[in-house]
Amino acid sequence: MIVLKEFKNELSQALSPYLLQHAHQQVAWQIWDKKYFKEDLNGEKLLLISIGYSACHWCHVMAHESFDDPKVALFMNQNFINFKIDREERPDIDQIYMSALQILTGQGGWPLNIIALPDGQPIWGTTYMSKENWLSALQQIQEIHKHQPQKLIDQAHLIQEGIKQLIPLKSLVSPKKPITIVPTLLMEKLYAKVDQTYGGFMGAPKFMMPIQLHLWLCAGLVLQRNHYLKHFHNSLHKMAFGGLFDPIEGGFSRYSVDAEWHVPHFEKMAYDNGQLLTTYSRAYLINPSTTYEKVVCKTISFIQTNLSDKAGGVYSALDADSTNEKGKMEEGAYYVWTPSELKKLLKDDFSLFASYFQVNEIGYWENGKYVLFRAKTIAEFSEQKQIPAAEMEKKVSDWEKILKKARNKRNSPSIDDKQICSWNAMVCEGILIASRVFKSEHYLDLALKSVAFIEDKFVLSKQQLIRIHKKNTQQIKGLLEDYAHLIKLYVTAYETLFVESYLTKAVLLTDHVIAYFFDPKEGFFNNTQEQEELPWSRSIETEDNVIVSSNAQMVENLLRLGIHHNNPDYNKLGLQMLSQMQGTITQYPRSYSHWITLSLWVSYPSVEIAVVGPDYKNVISQLQQHPYPFIVWAGATSATSHPLLLNKGESGKTLIYFCRNRQCDLPEKEWEKVWKKLNLLLD
Question: Which of 138, 313, 323, 361: disulfide with 411, CB 3.0–4.6 Å?
Fold first, then answer.
C-alpha cells in the first residue's frame, strides 16, 4: 500500500469552483505563480500544467481516474511541479498552452495537460488520457528528462517556433490603403463547407458558434445572398429544435456530440446563452418566428432562474454531470428521460408526447434514455395530427410544466458560481438587444440591473477592471476580453437608452486599453496589461472561437466609438489592425468570422442615424426593427455635443438624420421614409 507523506495542496485556498474540485486530491497542486519558474533545466523538476473548467465532463473523468489515484499522485509529486489552472479565470494562459497542444497533436480540448520545461516552455501535451496511458506517458517523459535532457530542450524550441508561426500573418498591404479583402470570395469558400441539412458546418462535434452565425446574417443581408440567410435560419431552427436546447427550462448546452444537434454535451455556459440571445433576437427582425421569440424568452428565463443571483450577477456555468437516482454521478442525468418515467407522468398523453418529442429510435441516446428534441413546429405537427394548433400549444405547455415539476425532484447539476466580467457583459448585451427587438420593459429592467451589478463588482475605477467576482472577493486583473466586452456593452447601452455617460465610460476604458494593452511592435492588443513572464510566447488573441477574439472586438469598438466620439485615431487604429489581418483572414476564413464581418462593415455602406426631438425614443424604437446590421445610433430631445447630434434639430419637431459615412441627407420627419432608405441598401 502506498502511503504519501503530508503535503500542502494550495488549491484549498482558491475561490474557483474548478480548482476547489481538486483541493482534496493527493496531487500537490499549486496555484499558478511565476515564482516557480526556473531558467536552469539541470536538476530542476519539469512543470505539469493541467487546465480545465468546472463544467467539463472529461475533466471530471480524468480527475477521478488519474488525479484521485494515490499511485499517480505520488509519481506526479515526486517528479513534477504540478499546476491547476481554471481556463475561465486565465484564458490568456490557456490560449498559449492550447496553441502548443495544437502544434503537437493537431487538435485541442479540455482537460488540457501540458508538460513544460522549468521556465514554462511546453514540450508535450494531451487532453483526456486513461490512467494507464497517463502514467506511462509521464514515466517516459521523466526518463528522457533524466537521461536525454537536451532532447526536451530541442522539442521546446521546435514548439516555440511553431507558436511564432501562429502570430497573425501581416498583410503586405499598407494600413493606409483601403481594405482589399473580397468578402464574396471568402463567403463562398465558407459556404462550400456548410451542412445544408442540419446547419452549421459539416461534421461533429458541432458547436453553435454565434460569431459565425452573425457573419451569415450580415453577409446574407449586405451581399444580398439568400442562400446565406437560408443557411442562417436553418441553423437556428435546427439548434432550437435539437437536444441542444432544453425545452423544459430553456438554455443551450455547450455543443452537440453529433452532426444533427441531437445529443448535447450537457454543460450550459453563460457566454453561449448570452451571445445566442443576440443572435436569435436579430434573426427575429428578418423572420418574426414564434420559435425565435420563445427561444429568447426561455433563455432569459433560464439565465434568471438557474444562472443568476439576486443582485443581477450571472454565474459561469452549470455542470454536465449530476447524481442519478442511484446517487452516482452521470452525464446528463438531470436532463434525460426513460419511457417508463414519461408514461407515469403523462399518462394518456404519452403517445402524442413521444411523437412530438421523438421518444423513439430517432431520439434514443443510451442506456434506455432519451434526449427530447423536435422535428416539427407546433403548427406543422398540429396539421399532421389534425389537432387544432391552440390545443396543441396548450398541451406542449402543460407537458413542459409536468416535466419541470418532476425534474425539480432530481439532483441539480453543480453550478460554477464565479462571476466573470466579460461573460456578464455578453449576457447583459443579449438582454439589451432582446429588449429592443421585442420592445420589452421587463427585459430592459433586467439589463439595467445587470449593468449596475457589473459596475459595482467589476469596475474598480473609471479605467480599471477586475475579471472575477465571487463571495464578495474580487481577484485577477481584468483581461483584454473583459475590457473589450464591457466597452461593447456600454456602446449598446447608449444605443438603447441614449444616456451619454455610457459613451463617456466606453471612451475612458478604450483609452486605457490603448495605453496599457497595445503592443506597437505587433500592432495588436495583448491579453494582459502586464505580460506573463513567458519569454517563449506573446499572449495575443486574434482567432475567433465560440467567443469573438478580443482584438476583433476591439476593432469593432474602435470603429463605432470613432464615430460616436469623432475620433479619427480610433478609426485609423481599427482599420490598421484589420488591414494587418488580411492575409490571415484570406487563408483561414473559418477561424476569423468576425474579422470578415468587420471587413463587410468597412466595405459596404456604414449608416449613422441621428434623431433629435421630443419623440426621438419612439422613432428610434421603430427604426431599430430594421435588420440592416451596420448602423450607429444617436438620439436626444435636443442638440448635444455628440458629433452626430451637434447643431441638429428644430424646436418642437422630431427630425431624423440619415447619414452614410457621416454625410447626412436632409432631415426627415417620418420614420417610414428612413426605413425605405435602409431597404434600398438591401436591394
Answer: 323
The reply to whether the predicted model has a pTM over 0.85 is: yes
**Strand, coil or helix: 643:** coil
DSSP H/E element including 674: helix 671-680
Polymer length of the chain: 683
Cα–Cα dist 305/299, whole Å = 10
Q: What is the DSSP string of 135-184?
A: HHHHHHHHHHHHH-HHHHHHHHHHHHHHHHHTS----SS-TTSPP---HH
For residues 279 and 335, what is the distance between their CA atoms, to the nearest angstrom?
25
359's grid cell: 421518444
Based on C-alpha coordinates, what's the Rg of the chain? 26
Residue 611: partners with Cβ closer than 8 Å, 6 or more residues away: 619, 620, 623, 634, 635, 654, 655, 656, 657
State the cell numbers at 390.
391552440
Helix (H, G, I), strand (E, B) or coil at 553: helix
Residue with cell 458560481: 417
Angstrom distance (rounded) from CA 50 to CA 34: 15
Let me know: does 429 contact 488? Beta carbons within 8 Å. yes
Instruction: Please list the residues that pair with 530 across neighbouring strands.
Output: none
Q: Is pLDDT above 90 for 8?
A: no
The torsion angles phi and psi of 171, rounded to 5 degrees, stand at -70, 145
Residue 85, helix vs strand vs coil = strand
The answer, yes or no, to whether residue 619 has pLDDT greater than 60, is yes
pLDDT, average across residues 50-56: 91
- Give the pLDDT score at 383: 95
516 burial class (0-12, 13-18, 19+ CB within 10 angstroms)?
Answer: middle
Stated as kind and residue range, the H or E segment containing 415 is strand 415-416
Beta-strand (E) ranges in 257-368?
264-265, 268-269, 317-318, 321-323, 329-331, 364-366
